[in-house]
Amino acid sequence: MLRLAIPNKGRLHDEARSLLADAGLEVRAASDRALVASLGGEFEGIFVRAQDIPELVADGSADAGITGWDLVQEADRGLVSQLDLGFGRCRLVVAAREESGIRSLDDLTEGTRVATVFPHVTARFFAAREKSVTLVPVSGAVEAAPHLGIADVILDLTSSGSTLRVNGLREVATVLESTARLVVAGDDRAPTGDRRQALDELVAALRSVLAGRDQRYVMANVPRTRLDEVRRILPGISGPTVIDVLNGGEKVAVHAVCPAAGIYRTLNALKAIGAEGILVTRIERLLA
Ligand code: AMP
Predict the structure, then answer these.
(1) What is the pLDDT confidence band of residue 237, given thresholds at 50, 70 and 90?
(2) Which of 8, 9, 11 to probe ligand 1 with, by most ligand atoms within 8 A of CB?
(3) Fewer CB within 10 Å, N or C, the chain?
(4) Could you tell me if the CB of 70 is within 6 A of ligand 1?
(5) What ligand 1 atom has the least distance to the C-alpha of 11?
(6) What is the CATH number of domain 2-88+180-212?
(7) Could you write out the DSSP letters of every residue in 153-197?
């Protein structure tokens, strides 16, 4: 059995579950509150808080885990990322009150008080810049700390920056960028043998699902005389596939994989050269 630690709630839970399901690992739990559930085959999920996952993977209670890179850095247990899962994107930033006059790290004086739920990341960040700061560990509501007078700046997570702004705070520096990762132990607790093979297969499956999510499969009937333009509009992975259409007259069918971002431009370009019957479908998996 390969034990995979998965966030049981919070921001990372839904996306982790749906990514696993898309890769064929559907949670088969007796109840929503189950702590352990089969994921099919040789995989078993253990459902815990995202912040506990680095510890469980580091001490060998789980063979691998899905959690935020920020939490992995905070735990500082030498875990290794096997795959960037793309979701849970956020940044750890230093922020100060708008009216504080602090605009960059240079404005921080000796002993500046930093409120955070990331004491280890904070200590490492300032030590690397040879700044001596005073840590103010808090367990939540970090944004309130400067207003309460218990800290001068905060080091906290943000994605759009709007929560910081609403709380009258200004970003001063980015400490790290984070996304959810699939992680394993960096020492001899990392899976070996059959479990390593199962993990490699899982990584390949997840990678193919992620690759497919950014792409679409485009099909269209185009005039045979415009195939040179089709090659330019739909380069595909190794050129578009061209298929004869029975009774298609001057038209042939072309099929190609195409980036989802900005696909409307591709479709407009196809229409402009006389394409008909354009179909766009999602791709479940893409193994390049
Ligand atoms: P949870 O506390 O279980 O909701 O999970 C928090 C984790 O979600 C963080 O450690 C990050 O990895 C990730 N995350 C993504 N966006 C944000 C955000 N805007 N604020 C806080 N955490 C975020």
Answers:
(1) confident
(2) 11
(3) C
(4) yes
(5) 4
(6) 3.40.190.10
(7) EEEEEESSSHHHHHTTEEEEEEEEEE-EEEEE-SSTTS--HHHHH
